[in-house]
Amino acid sequence: MLARRYLHHLNRVVTPLGDSMQRVASCFTEALSARLAATLTTTSTTSSSSAATSIKPFNPFPPNSLEILKIYQIVYQACPYIKFAHFTANQAIFEAFESEDRVHVIDLDIHQGYQWPAFMQALSARPGGAPFLRITGVGPSIEAVEETGRCLTELAHSLHVPFEFHAVGEQLEDLKPHMFNRRVGEALAVNSVSRLHRVPSNCLGNLLTMIRDQAPNIFTLVEQEASHNGPYFLGRFLEALHYYSAIFDSLDATFPAESAQRAKVEQYIFAPEIRNIVASEGAERTVRHERLEKWRKVMEGKGFRGVPLSANAVTQSKILLGLYSCDGYRLTEDKGCLLLGWQDRPIIAASAWRC
Could you state one GO cellular component term attached to this entry (predicted)? Predict the structure, then answer.
């Protein structure tokens, strides 16, 4: 009852269209309301059921996938986080493929393939011409992955890059070695951007072992720099509050306060993440971000060793940040890895590995 009273008060003072703190507080208030509703539902009492139904339902996604794609495009253009992930990983892969004639990239979460046009352009400009490039794209929907493959095939043709695409429609925990379609004589890179944290912990070890057994030249790993998978709710909540407050602050410096685009980004991309971290438990909690330090232990425990990101990767990241009018973004190095943050808060970490 006390929690309901506090949440009722919060709902009166926060707004998703206010200042940065009000906006992030609105998301966390909604998430706490959802957690309380779930708690009340599990008690299976009549009064609890009526209390739970009084919480307003929340739809985490816009009505259609095209709208979702447009919102991701807004984030991609307005903030450097995703571009930093793609450019840094691409540079490490490009350097690992130097002088190779046949190269193969396995993208563990290809989405619309935004990462690869710039990579293809870099290959096409290589002295002596582009190598033969094969991309294996992995995603839960085979139809969506195949559509991405068609777009990339058209682009490769226009850039005169010899190209082949292989689509895999599976969750990562269901992947089998034969699905990678490994070929003799190909240099291999495995790429994972903001994906491994969603793999169930009891499946992650097997997945990494399977990847290691493919003997990749490079394994690029980019993850959110946050600890949202701790065993205690309060610690997880406070960590998430600080982390997303920094992200919302960066959005505040990027968009006008009344921006409809900003509201969509916050409500349809970051609010569902917050809700999952705060309101969900067990198998339903899929947003399980870990810090770079934890990923180091996981990777080294599976036989990988770190590959320091090059001076070119650092320079490229600095040039990327120079394209944005905000001066709050910070680039730091940590034992050969690169971290991009807002003010003094790291947001995303990029690392590279090999066997």
Answer: nucleus
